[in-house]
Each structure stands twice: as structure tokens, then as C-alpha cells.
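Please check our next protein.
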Amino acid sequence: MYNYSQQTDDYKRIEKAIHFIEDNFKSQPTLDEIADYVHLSKYHFNRIFKRWAGIGPVQFLQFITLDYTKQKLATSQNLLDASLDAGLSGSSRLHDLFVTFDAMTPGDFKKQGDGLKIEYRFSGSPFGECLIATTERGICHFGFVQKNNRSDALNPLFETWPGAVFCEKPQLIDPLVNRIFNLDQTNESRPFNILIKGTNFQINVWKALLQIPSGNLVSYQDIAAYIGRPNAFRAVASAIAINPIAYLIPCHRVITKSGKIHQYRWGSSRKKAIVGWEAAKKVSNGVPN
């Protein structure tokens, strides 16, 4: 099984570098300046990026520029419909994760998870430490730890399922993390089942996010139009902001119409890192970007 401790450590440097770029975007810092900020030589910084993303920092940083995101938005006009028509057999979906939904019933809602057994685990990942929780009906929570604060990461899980029985279970979660982030190497075709609580509107929004192929970007307005509520893009943004299943429900692929990558529950730098990482994976897999 893949050990994500190295990638987790590498991510800390990458996130710090992206923070620095965000804070100094007007002066457009050089690669030497970015490497110096994270206390690495340019050579070592380049090596870490290639180990983490499969490409060097210069190419990676191009994937999170405003010019690049605007270009991706411009080509996404019919992306959602085309993706739905192509399904997972389409060439653009070959390396995507296959996710199925199990939404809570009104009766389930009233129980507040009473008696539900939830097994969870903190784990390393390519985007820092994460928290994944699962039930016999599927994954019910996936979030990232911010500022090394595990308590803050756990609170949303406990608050969402107040009546549940919680148990930390590494032997169940570790293989799941490996499948999520190492799909090409595991060669597994089983879907990821998820169990979610939300209004009908929220669930429709979250389902729509699954139609965005990896490495692509759409706007909040695109999602609103796709679900048949073109004027409800603010409500769409609110639903996306409380998405309980990071990465698997790819809310990171939705950005503002201006092309800016921000407004992410687990930090704008992490959102940029995931967007760039997915674009890099497409390049590594020989898919045109």
C-alpha cells in the first residue's frame, strides 16, 4: 500500500509556496524567490514538485494562473452536458473516480444518525492530512486538516451525525485512501459509495459536480444552469461551500466567473494545489490539457 507520509510532507512546502505566490502575485516572484521562501534550493524545490505532481514547478504554476483558468472556463460551456453524454467511457473520464450517492431519507434525518456506526481515520494525502469517515452505507465525511488542528476537523463530523457511535479504524480507512489517490495503480473499478445529508437542492448541486471531468473547471453559473436554476448561482455557491465530501465530490473544480481560484472550505491554497495537481496528472497520463 502506498505511503502518503512523503507526499504529505511535500505538500506542506507546496502549500507554503502557493501562499507566497498569492501574497506577492503583483510582483510575480521568480522561482528562485519562491524556493528561497520555503528554505530550499531551486534544485531541491524542483525535485519536490516533480515527486509530488509529476511535473516541475514552472509548468505546474501555469495551471493556476488567471490566464489558464479563464481559458478553461471558456472551453467549459458545454462541458457538463458532453460529460454526461460520454459517461465514464469517454476518454476524458478514464482517470476519474466513480462515485455513487446514497442520500439520507427524511426518516434518517430525524434520527440524526442515532445508532449509526461511523469509523474514521486521520490519514496522509497528496494535499496534507485528511479526515475520512465511513459507514456500511458509504463514506459520510471527507475533509482536510487545517493548521494542524484535528479538533476543528472533527467537529463538523460530530455535529453532522450527533447520534452516531464513532470508532477510529485505520485498517478500514487506509485502503480507502489508497484507492482514492492512487486509482491508476490499484486498477480497481469499484465505485466509491457515499452517504450524505442535505436538502434536495444541495444534493442536486453535489451530484452535478460529479459531471466535471478531472482537470477541468466550470463556474458557479455553469452549475446553476446545468441543474435548471440559472439564476440561483448564489445558492449553488452556498451548497458547494458546505460540501461534506472533499475531493470525491469535486467542488474544487468550480471557480468564479472571473477565473479566480478561491472560496474553498479547506483553504484557497489547497484548492489551487488540487487544481494544478489534477491538470498535471492529465499531462502525465498523456491527455491534452
Q: What stands out?
A: The chain has two domains: 5-64, 70-284. The first helix runs from residue 5 to 23. The chain is about 45% helix and 15% strand. Confidence is low (pLDDT under 50) at residues 86-92.
